[in-house]
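Researcher: Quick test of sequence recovery. Tokens follow.
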């Protein structure tokens, strides 16, 4: 069973407000992308990696992969205008005989082998897709024009992260439609795919702002007691 990873790294990182795309913002003195790339490379479950690069940064991605000794990287392709478009481009680079495609955001540097194992375990049980999720500590309300219109049943809600793993044929069909979505799972769900949620990881925080970057940096460099 061959497992391919598509690493979505093509975003501009506007909210990070740096002079370069977010994937190349500095985390502990190296590009943010290096962290997830190295972790996916080290995974015993992943065979090949496609990086979806910020347009114009395809070559620096290849150089970074070489520098890190990431021999599983088989392609670096320019992304599109949206995350969904970038993922579609990345999935297009995956070999026809791939059994599973795992899609991950470079913006979540701390991907772990444990989460990858949980996702692939769920696919092994017969699910079309698996996503990592965490329960929500806060009460969640739907608000319109400042007025609360509904309090949602928190027990049923999950904050969903990446990596997200799918049977390759299922993901290919889901992205082919060209629809926009903030994650891959929703495209699969919309086509009737059966997706399960496995336990996520608070360390899979998505780096959006400079504060997030500093927090992840402290987890990497600080003592283990700093970690969530
Ligand atoms: N992404 C992508 N192609 C895009 C937009 C986003 O591959 N056109 C990727 C990002 O690189 C990131 C992930 O999707 O790994 C999640 O996106 P987000 O956190 O919003 O990153 P950016 O779009 O780069 O940040 P911003 O929205 O602040 O510009
Ligand atoms: Mg964005």
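Model:
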């Amino acid at each position: 069973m061959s497992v391919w990873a598509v690493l979505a790294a093509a975003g501009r990182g506007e909210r990070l407000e740096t002079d370069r795309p977010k994937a190349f913002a500095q985390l502990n003195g190296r590009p943010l992308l290096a962290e997830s790339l190295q972790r996916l490379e080290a995974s015993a479950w992943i065979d090949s990696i496609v990086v979806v690069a910020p347009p114009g940064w395809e070559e620096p991605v290849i150089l970074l992969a070489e520098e890190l000794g990431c021999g599983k990287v088989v392609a670096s392709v320019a992304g599109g205008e949206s995350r969904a478009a970038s993922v579609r481009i990345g999935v297009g680079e995956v070999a026809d005989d791939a059994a599973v495609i795992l899609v991950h955001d470079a913006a979540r540097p701390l991907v772990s082998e444990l989460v990858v194992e949980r996702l692939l375990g769920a696919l092994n049980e017969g699910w079309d897709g698996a996503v990592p999720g965490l329960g929500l500590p806060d009460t969640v309300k739907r608000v319109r024009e400042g007025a609360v219109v509904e309090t949602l049943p928190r027990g049923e809600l999950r904050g969903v992260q990446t990596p997200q793993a799918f049977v390759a044929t299922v993901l290919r069909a889901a992205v082919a439609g060209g629809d926009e979505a903030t994650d891959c799972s929703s495209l699969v769900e919309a086509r009737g795919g059966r997706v399960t949620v496995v336990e996520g990881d608070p360390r899979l925080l998505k780096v959006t702002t400079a504060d997030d970057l500093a927090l992840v940096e402290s987890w990497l460099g600080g003592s283990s007691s700093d970690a969530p």
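The longest strand covers residues 129-135.
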